[in-house]
Amino acid sequence: MTDALGGPYAGRDGVPVLQVGASRNTSIDVIRALCLIMIFVNHVPGNPLERLTTKNFGFSDAAEIFVLLSGVSAAYAYGAKYGQGARLVTTLKIWRRSGVLYVAHLATTVATLGIFSFLAIVYAKPELLEAINIAPVMAEPAKALVGLVTLGHQLGYNNILPVYAAMLLLLPLFLAIGERSLTMMVALSGAIWLVSGCLQLGFPNYPNDGVWFLNPLSWQFLFVIGIAAALHLRRGGALPARRDLLLASFAYLVLSFAWVRIPLWGVDTSFGLPAVLTGFDKTFLSLPRLLHVLAAGYLIAMIPQLGQIFRLSVRHPLSVLGRHALPVFLLGTLLSMAAQAWRIAHGSTALSDIAMVSGGTMLLFALAWFLEWHRELSGSRPAARSGQTPDLVLSTLVARGD
Hints:
Low-confidence stretches: 1-22, 383-402
Number of helices: 16
Order of helices and strands: EEHHHHHHHHEHHHHHHHH
């Protein structure tokens, strides 16, 4: 048998275990593409298609999937190189990638400000300059510019890249610890997550109060879990397919689905414990959200039939889209910002929302196909045919080891 990610199962006391596959599996690209599409759809809030995204069926959403699998990707892209003794070179490559994400974030932020400002002028809609956290830029431009450059001020729906850039800065530290002990690496990461959640510690906003919407001190735990899982597999380890874990994971997903759909948000489950252990806060990645994405990931990894759902041909549109994550993500951000500004200026109907989101999704596919065509025209061999270990979700966005 093969597992959902293309790796072979090896029997151990009658229990199948997951091992690292030797070649790229298109299911990874397909999952990546679905996440990109869902992020685009969710970034046009209130449109009818938003009801179809994963956030409506459980505690976590596409953001958690991205972070978990980008941790796996980072392990594949940098873990082996770091362990081969090229620590300084690998560290510099990681930090260079972090810098690329920083510049990309500033570019999308400036473009977003331009989109909202342009429509505010053309349609005489000053309320556009108060949306998605633009108001502080208008009220105190000097302070806000400092905040934008230092990442202390982030526009709404423009806060994904900063958390990835920050986690990449921390990556060399975790790789160094992971060389000695993966258990120690995960324990330290978990301690940081717990302390930051209990004490509400995070990277500060400026000039506004509070912390980043996606707090890197919290989200790094999910990132490190992905790193640890991948490094464990690369070192010959395995994920045991235990029936009790499979049943517990399935039961938790069912509970999460029921909680969201009934819904049961008013039920008090705190039991006097810190909110990070019992709540559903996204900023500090509360435990229920963390467990939800881990349960889903475990089932997909351990049940071959689930993985086959996402295993499409190399030329399938979703496979192609997933291979060009960074440009697709950036275009999706700009299109969603344009859609939001247009809806504020003109209002919206269900039909117009569906038309905008569907048209934007088609443009994402068009960009991916163009980039694929250009790569083939230039003679570059697609990664999907190279036989190398797969780069996973947003690897081109957060963890390319070039």
